């Protein structure tokens, strides 16, 4: 089962102006441009601005990274995905052998995830992905989508996927999926999975609940937890999951776009961010990509890791720019320690002192305990200074015989250090 809400075609309301782009045969027919930016595909991609993706694209666009999308197949002929989709595979007779088709006539789920990750962009009426220069490797599970998730993970790992997006899930635990996750981690892949939606899940599903996987919950436009997102101790990160526009096949929407809610979208966004990091830091192994995403997350909710946001909301610019000590293993598996000899091994990530959490310890921004510690430090420093001044004055008086006549100066009775 997929972990996204129903993806609504953009044919009505303010977004109805997207009907100005409709699929016709093999090409596009474009109507006159709308008067407002909010009525464009790019204008409806609020998550790009919230995550500061235009700034991030000055540093990385995902070049050289392959993201496997394990889903129902990808409609590779979509204008925003042409040239982005590699030859993949199909584990179902319902999808062609290379994975270049999406039989999902209700959601177009696999195509939507691929667009969120690697849409080419190129104008206000084109969908811009998080990592527009990454390549999509489709692994089609067909119908139902939960069929052979383990086989899909293994195939993607063997095909050399750098990032594996898993916007799919099944309730409970599956030993075969757990083994496949371990296999893919051993092959050097970063695995990102949706934490699930309350409409279909009461707990974080497989594979998001498997140790080592980046389990992603959804946030609303205001940054708070999206109400439909499943919570649980397995959560690692949070990302936008409310009213996310993406590419869909023609049967879902004649204009090629739809809007949906769900942790599927949030997981696709984090998969794109992982691709940006892998492209910018090509020497980093998967464990350190995971570590970088965790250490630079913006803490939300309860201080430190919590069941609603995990380590916090993904911070794209910090993940691309912060100084993060390298670790010797996946921190989601081992509580990995900094590598010996790392010059920054004892230093926190360079995150502009904005209170982002480390893996094992974190405080919310402006947390009261931070203020209390600062005040205590100032008070102790004041006490030390006063004591030193008094001692020095007394020592000076003892060193000068026959001091000035008259009574010696006395400290005001009852005075206290300030």
Automatic annotation (TrEMBL):
Residues 328-359, 398-418 are annotated as: Disordered. Keywords: Cell membrane, Hydrolase, Membrane, Protease, Serine protease, Signal, Transmembrane, Transmembrane helix. Residues 62-312 form the Peptidase S8/S53 domain. Residues 1-37 form the signal peptide. The active site is at residues 71, 109, 264. It is a single-pass membrane protein. It comes from the Bacteria. The keyword Transmembrane applies. InterPro entries: Peptidase_S8/S53_dom, Peptidase_S8/S53_dom_sf, Peptidase_S8_subtilisin-like, Peptidase_S8_subtilisin-rel, T7SS_pept_S8A_mycosin, TAT_signal. Gene3D superfamilies: Peptidase S8/S53 domain (3.40.50.200). It is found in: Cell membrane. One of its GO terms (cellular component) is plasma membrane. GO terms for molecular function: serine-type endopeptidase activity. PROSITE patterns: SUBTILASE (PS51892), TAT (PS51318). Residues 343-353 have a biased composition (Acidic residues). Its main location: membrane. Pfam families: Peptidase_S8 (PF00082). One of its GO terms (biological process) is proteolysis. PANTHER family: CEREVISIN-RELATED, PEPTIDASE S8. Belongs to the peptidase S8 family. This is Type VII secretion-associated serine protease mycosin. It comes from Micromonospora haikouensis.
């Amino acid at each position: 089962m997929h972990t996204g809400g129903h993806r609504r075609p953009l044919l009505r309301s303010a977004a109805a102006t997207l009907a100005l782009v409709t699929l016709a045969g093999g090409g596009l027919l474009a109507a006159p441009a709308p008067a407002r930016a909010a009525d464009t595909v790019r204008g409806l991609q609020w998550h790009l601005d919230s995550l500061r993706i235009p700034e991030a694209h000055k540093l990385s666009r995902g070049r050289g990274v392959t993201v496997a999308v394990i889903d129902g197949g990808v409609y590779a002929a979509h204008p925003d995905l042409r040239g982005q989709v590699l030859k993949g595979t199909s584990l179902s007779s319902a999808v062609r052998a290379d994975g270049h088709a999406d039989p999902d006539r209700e959601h177009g789920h696999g195509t939507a995830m691929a667009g969120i990750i690697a849409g080419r962009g190129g104008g206000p009426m084109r969908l811009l992905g998080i990592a527009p220069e990454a390549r999509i490797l489709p692994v089609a599970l067909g119908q139902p989508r939960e069929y052979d998730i383990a086989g899909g993970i293994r195939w993607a790992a063997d095909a050399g996927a750098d990032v594996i997006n898993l916007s799919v899930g099944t309730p409970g635990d599956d030993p075969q999926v757990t083994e496949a996750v371990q296999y893919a981690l051993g092959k050097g892949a970063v695995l990102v999975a949706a934490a699930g939606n309350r409409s279909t899940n009461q707990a974080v599903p497989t594979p998001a609940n498997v140790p080592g996987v980046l389990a992603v919950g959804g946030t609303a436009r205001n940054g708070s937890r999206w109400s439909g997102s499943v919570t649980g101790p397995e959560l690692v990160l949070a990302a936008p999951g409310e009213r996310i526009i993406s590419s869909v096949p023609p049967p879902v929407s004649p204009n090629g776009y739809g809007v949906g809610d769900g942790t599927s979208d949030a997981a696709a966004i984090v998969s794109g961010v992982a691709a940006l990091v892998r492209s910018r830091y090509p020497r980093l192994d998967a464990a350190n990509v995971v570590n970088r995403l965790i250490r630079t997350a913006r803490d939300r909710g309860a201080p430190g890791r919590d069941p609603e946001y995990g380590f916090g909301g993904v911070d794209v610019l910090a993940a691309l720019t912060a100084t993060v000590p390298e670790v010797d293993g996946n921190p989601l598996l081992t509580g990995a320690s900094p590598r010996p000899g790392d010059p920054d091994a004892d230093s926190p990530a360079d995150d502009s002192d904005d209170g982002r959490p480390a893996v094992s310890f974190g405080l919310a921004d402006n947390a009261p305990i931070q203020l209390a510690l600062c005040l205590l430090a100032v008070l102790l420093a004041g006490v030390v200074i006063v004591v030193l001044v008094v001692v020095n004055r007394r020592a000076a008086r003892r060193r000068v015989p026959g001091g000035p006549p008259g009574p010696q100066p006395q400290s005001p009775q009852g005075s206290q250090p300030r």
